[in-house]
Amino acid sequence: MPTIRDLGDNIYKGLGFPTRLPEGEVTLAHWKQVWLPWSLLLLSLKCETNAFYVPGVAPINFHQNDPVEIKAVKLTSSRTQLPYEYYSLPFCQPSKITYKAENLGEVLRGDRIVNTPFQVLMNSEKKCEVLCSQANKPVTLTVEQSRLVAERITEDYYVHLIADNLPVATRLELYSNRDSDDKKKEKDVQFEHGYRLGFTDVNKIYLHNHLSFILYYHREDMEEDQEHTYRVVRFEVIPQSIRLEDLKADEKSSCTLPEGTNSSPQEIDPTKENQLYFTYSVHWEESDIKWASRWDTYLTMSDVQIHWFSIINSVVVVFFLSGILSMIIIRTLRKDIANYNKEDDIEDTMEESGWKLVHGDVFRPPQYPMILSSLLGSGIQLFCMILIVIFVAMLGMLSPSSRGALMTTACFLFMFMGVFGGFSAGRLYRTLKGHRWKKGAFCTATLYPGVVFGICFILNCFIWGKHSSGAVPFPTMVALLCMWFGISLPLVYLGYYFGFRKQPYDNPVRTNQIPRQIPEQRWYMNRFVGILMAGILPFGAMFIELFFIFSAIWENQFYYLFGFLFLVFIILVVSCSQISIVMVYFQLCAEDYRWWWRNFLVSGGSAFYVLVYAIFYFVNKLDIVEFIPSLLYFGYTALMVLSFWLLTGTIGFYAAYMFVRKIYAAVKID
C-alpha cells in the first residue's frame, strides 16, 4: 500500500527534483538547500506510515491469471479538439457495455470510461486473439461506418485505453547520433499518449486493426508460504495494420499473425463495405519499477532544464528590474515627501507639479463602483482558487492518476472561495461610497460566472451538434447551475454582507467637493500604451511555462511540474505588483487622479500578450483548419484571457491601492 513516503516522491517530482539519487551523488550543499527541509518533513511523518495512506491511490494486487480489465477512455485529436467516446466507431463490443461513474472533471474533459472485450489475464501470454468473431466470420463495416472510420483517421485521432488506471502509450525510438555508425547510435525513447487509429499513405487510408499489448508487472516481495502478487507498472501498445487475407483465424477465436514484413496493411475504402478482423495479442514482462514510480514514464519530461532555465531567468530579470524600480521610486518618494513636508516652503511646494497636488481627488470614487468592486471580488475568488489548486497539486495530491481531480477541485474551490470574493467586494464597495449592497452582491456572484457560463453554453451547443463526448450533458449542466446558485451565490452574499458591514478602508486624506481639472496628458500616458508597457514584464516571466500549459490543454499532453508553476505564480504576483505601483505613480505625478479603473485595466496588460501568444500558437503549432475547432479554440482562449486579466488586474489593483494609501499617509496635508 502507498504510504506518506510515496507522497514525498510526488512532492520532489512536482518541484522538478529527481525522486531518488544514487548513493554518493548528494553533495552537502545540495542536501542543506534542497533535500534537508523536505527530508525533515517526511521523517517527522515516517512514524505514521503504517497507519496513513494517500486517499484514492491504493494499488491493486493481482495473482497469477487474475483478470486485468482494459477500459477505453475516449478518442482525441489535436486537429479537431473534439473528443469522442470509444464506441462512436464500430469497434468490437462486449456482451454488456458498462460505463464508469465519472466525477465532474472527467465529464468536463470528455472522458467516457467504458469496458472493452479485451480478455487480459495477469502474467498470461496471448499470441493472437480475434475479437467479435462469429464462426470465423470477419467484421463487415457498412459504407457509412467505413466513411466515419476513414474520416477519423484522416483527422489524426488517437485511441486512449487504460489498464489498472494506467493509460496506454506508444513507444517511439528516436536516434540521437545520426551521423555516427549504426552501432554507436543512441536510442532516445519517448512515449506517445494513446495510439493512432490509423494512417494514410498515397491517398489510401489504413486502420490499425491489430493491437500488441505489452504490460509490465512488478513482483511484490512475499513470505515463502504466500502466493506471489503482481502490480501493473506500465502499459504499452504496438498498433499494426494487417489485412484480412494475411490473418488466419480458427473457430476458437485464435489467429496466426503473418511472419516478417510480408503482410499488407488493412485498407479502409470509404466508398464501399470493408471486411476485416479486429485482433490483439498480450505480452507480459517483469519490471524493477515499483508501483509508486509507475507514472514516471508518462510524466518524465526531457526538457526539465528548460523549466529551470526559465525560472532562473525570470527570477533574475524580475528581481533585478524590481530592485531598480523600487530603488528609483523609494529615492524619488523620499525626496518628494521631504519637499512636501517642509513647513517653510509650503507656497513654493504648492506651485510645483506632483502627486501631492491631487491629494484631494485621489480617493474620489470612480464611475461604476459596483461593477469595479464586483470584478475585483471575482479576481480575489480566482486568486484564492488558483493559489490553493497549484499548491495542493505541487504536493502531488492532484496527479494525473486521479482523473479529473484537478478540474473538479478547481470548480468546487471557486464556488467555496465566493465568501472571500464577496467579503473583499463588499468592503471595497462601501469604501467607494456604495449603498446598494444586495445588488452589488448579486452582481459579484453573477457577472464573471455568467459570462463564463454563457460562452461555455454557446460553445457546448456547437459541440452537441458534432455529437462529441466533450459536450457537457444536460444533467451535468443543471448540476453546475445548482452549484452556482446553491453554493456560490449564498456564500458571496454571506461574505458581501460581512464585508459591507465592516469598517471601510481608511483613506488618509479627505476628498474635495469640487473635482480638480486634469491637465492634458502626454501620448505615453495613453491607456493602451500603458497596457503594452505594463504587460510585457509579467508575461516575460511566464511565457515559457505558458507553452507547456498550452501543450497540455490543446495537444493532450500531461502537465505535472506544478512546483515550477507555483514558482512562476509567485514571480507573476511580484512582477504585477511592482509594475502596477510604477504605473500608478507615473499617473499621479501627471496629476491624473482617475487611477481606479485605469490601474485595474493596465495591471492586467499581460493578458493582452497571452492573447497574442495564443494566436501565434494557433497559427504555428496547431493544424486546425475547420470552423468549429477554431471556434472552440478561440472561445476557450477568450475565457482564459478574461480570467487571466481579472487575476493580474486584481493583484495590481490591490498593490497600487496599498501604495497610494501609504504615500499619502506619509505627507502632511493642510
Structure description:
With 670 residues, the protein is of the alpha+beta class. It contains 17 helices and 17 strands. The strands form six sheets. Strands 1, 2, 5, 6 and 9 form a five-stranded antiparallel β-sheet that branches. Strands 3-17-12-13 form a four-stranded mixed β-sheet, with no helix packed on it. Strands 4-16 form a two-stranded antiparallel sheet. Strand 5 and strand 6 form a beta hairpin. Helix 1 packs antiparallel against helix 2 and helix 11 packs antiparallel against helix 12.
Question: How is the topology of this model organized?
Answer:
Elements: H1 4-14, H2 28-45, E1 70-76, H3 104-109, E2 114-115, E3 126-131, E4 139-141, H4 143-154, E5 158-163, E6 166-167, E7 169-175, E8 187-193, E9 195-196, E10 198-201, E11 204-207, E12 210-219, E13 230-240, E14 248-249, E15 255-256, E16 274-276, E17 278-286, H5 296-299, H6 304-340, H7 346-351, H8 369-394, H9 405-416, H10 418-431, H11 437-465, H12 474-501, H13 527-554, H14 562-589, H15 596-603, H16 606-620, H17 627-665
Parallel strand pairs: 12-17
Antiparallel strand pairs: 1-2, 1-5, 3-17, 4-16, 5-6, 5-9, 7-8, 10-11, 12-13, 14-15
Helix pairs in contact: 1-2, 6-13, 6-14, 8-9, 8-10, 8-11, 8-14, 8-17, 9-12, 10-11, 10-12, 11-12, 11-17, 13-14, 13-15, 13-16, 14-17, 15-17, 16-17
Features:
670 residues, alpha+beta, five-stranded antiparallel beta sheet, four-stranded mixed beta sheet, 17 helices, 17 strands, disordered N terminus
